[in-house]
Design goal:
Layout lengths: L4 H13 L5 H15 L5 E6 L2 E8 L2 H13 L23
Antiparallel strand pairs: 1-2
Helix pairs in contact: 1-2
């Protein structure tokens, strides 16, 4: 699903514009991502020195639980980074 950069900016800005700082703004941002990208849910964890500091924001309760589960029972983040190619994400569940 291709989304224009203008639409992305507009919807993401609107999601946080009137939200209270912190968790409400983060949750609004992820709810907007779900709408924009046609996914079932979105969440983000805070990491420090390779250890999860917990889920910071999520689009819904299920996404929050899944995000917390991945660091409790799995060992890697789902999203790839330049230091961690996509093929190495969630190695226990990867099909590659």
């Amino acid at each position: 699903m291709a989304v224009s950069i203008d639409r992305m900016r507009s919807q993401l800005s609107a999601a946080v514009r009137d939200a209270a700082p912190g968790l409400p703004a983060a949750n609004g941002l992820f709810a907007a991502c779900v709408d924009l990208f046609g996914v079932d849910g979105a969440a983000i964890s805070m990491m420090h020195e390779g250890a999860s500091q917990g889920t910071f924001g999520s689009s819904n309760a299920i996404s929050r639980r899944l995000d917390e589960y991945q660091f409790t029972h799995l060992e890697k983040a789902l999203v790839s980074t330049p230091r961690q190619p996509k093929s190495r994400c969630w190695p226990r569940t990867s099909t590659s």
